[in-house]
């Protein structure tokens, strides 16, 4: 059962979204699709409309894709090389006046969440990763020191789980699981 089990129905994009690792190595993502995915991120809300997110976008086969892929943990490289695009999100950790922007990670997460939903809406899948070497990514992509690398998002077309093997295959076909609402709503769970 892949669809999220919920006590009441939620939007099907949210219920059906998952983070697959079996991706089709031949699918090319069109520029229009990538632009839409980036627009969805661009229009995310952020504290004081600060928009601290910056993106590095690689399409499979190009230089940026190779530079991001090279920074991934080997487990992630093992499946993410088949993605159609790799997007690294980095965040400005200081405000324009030089004071720390404590909320930059929160804002970057919101932008990525919108990106993920737009991706799935378009029939692609998105798989976020923090399993990457931030120093290597910064070096490979010549990332400005004002930016902190936050996450990499693999965008691709989902392929049959059976293309994977071993533990990765098991994880791919395992049901999605979550804590119960009782566990995560500390006070005020509606009954
Ligand atoms: C911030 C973040 C970092 C993640 N890092 C990795 C990663 O490095 N490698 C990986 O295979 N999956 C990674 N994931 C995927 C999670 O394991 C996955 O979202 C979680 O198990 C829930 O599964 P679902 O997205 O299919 O519902 C990451 C997800 C998030 C949100």
In short:
This protein is α+β, with helices and mostly antiparallel strands. Helix 2 runs antiparallel to helix 5 and helix 3 runs antiparallel to helix 6. It has eight helices and four strands.
Overview of this protein structure:
- The chain is an alpha+beta fold and 191 residues long.
- The protein has a single domain, classed as NADH Oxidase.
- It contains 8 helices and 4 strands; from the N terminus they run H-H-E-H-H-E-H-E-H-E-H-H.
- Helix 2 runs antiparallel to helix 5.
- It is globular.
- Flavin mononucleotide binds next to strand 3.
Please bin the fraction of helical residues.
25-40%
Total number of strands: 4
> Mean pLDDT, nearest integer?
97
Which small molecules are bound? flavin mononucleotide
Number of helices: 8
* Measured distance between first and last alpha carbons: 26 Å
Task: List the defining traits of the structure above.
37% helix, binds flavin mononucleotide, 191 residues, NADH Oxidase, alpha+beta, globular, four-stranded antiparallel beta sheet
């Amino acid at each position: 059962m892949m669809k999220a089990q919920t006590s009441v129905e939620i939007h099907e994009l949210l219920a059906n979204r998952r983070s697959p690792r079996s991706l089709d190595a031949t699918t090319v993502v069109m520029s229009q699709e990538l632009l839409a995915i980036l627009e969805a991120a661009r229009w995310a809300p952020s504290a004081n409309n600060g928009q601290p997110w910056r993106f590095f976008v690689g399409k499979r086969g190009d230089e940026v894709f190779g530079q991001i892929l090279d920074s991934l943990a080997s487990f992630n490289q093992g499946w993410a090389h088949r993605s159609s695009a790799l997007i690294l999100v980095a965040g400005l950790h200081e405000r324009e006046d030089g004071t720390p922007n404590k909320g930059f990670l929160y804002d970057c997460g919101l932008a990525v969440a919108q990106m993920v939903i737009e991706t799935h809406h378009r029939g692609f899948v998105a798989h976020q990763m923090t399993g990457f070497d931030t120093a290597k990514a910064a070096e490979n992509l010549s990332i400005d020191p004002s930016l902190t690398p936050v996450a990499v998002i693999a965008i691709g077309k989902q392929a049959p789980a059976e293309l994977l093997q071993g533990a990765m295959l098991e994880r791919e076909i395992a049901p999605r699981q979550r804590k119960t609402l009782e566990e995560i709503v500390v006070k005020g769970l509606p009954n």
